[in-house]
Amino acid sequence: MDKNGATLMIDSGVGGISVLALAAKRMPAENFCFFADAANAPYGDKQPDEIHALLMDIIGRYQKRRIKAILLACNTATSAAAAALRQELDIPVIGMEPALKPAVLNSRGQVIVIATRLTIREKKFRNLLAQYESGRDIVPIACPGLMELVEKDPAGSETEAYLAETLAPYRDTAEAVVLGCTHYVFLRPMIRRLFPGLRIFDGNEGVTRHLGNILSEIGQQGGSGVVEMECSLTDQVQKDAYLRKCGEMLSFCGRMYADQDYAA
Length: 264
Description:
Rossmann fold, 264 residues
């Protein structure tokens, strides 16, 4: 088996690092290439055809590498382009899905879903919502600007103020919150502090488990445990700073996933 084969993970920013960290923890022998399209972030305000073109450009950068699977570590990119990419590419394309199913199955009360505007309005999420909304109180909430605040500082005062204002109306009614953007996973510690009674669900556990199953099915498990990170910024100083931030967020997630309190 070719130990140089890798799974390519793509996000518009550092949010996908939360997926990478968990995947590397679950599959330490696998090789991963993570690409942050920071030059074109955020994806949440773009049109699906524009996002599709950006993703094809990124995938083209790796055409000389043996990529055995692509994981869109971004709910917005998944909603906009996963279906088309699966038709166009001859390797598995795996996408994110808001963890609405486990939230509904593991709660009885109100469930709120926070995500980007594009994720909320796209057909993929509307279909998911239709499966579980019967007899349940599910509230989708678009959060424009939150992804950018997380990029700036996931523990910062601006981020906290935005999050507190967004979730405050549901303090006494919501039992669970679904984090429908991989960037929002970094907010788990803050949500626990601000809303200690709120159960938190995200799609990272499900998608990393699915990736492992897919690699097993196609006989492509294994590697040498190499993790590479790249971004689309062209200014070298900015690029170096951004990749340092990616490394810091990878360490942050490593600590978060090691915490037994991670589970909802």
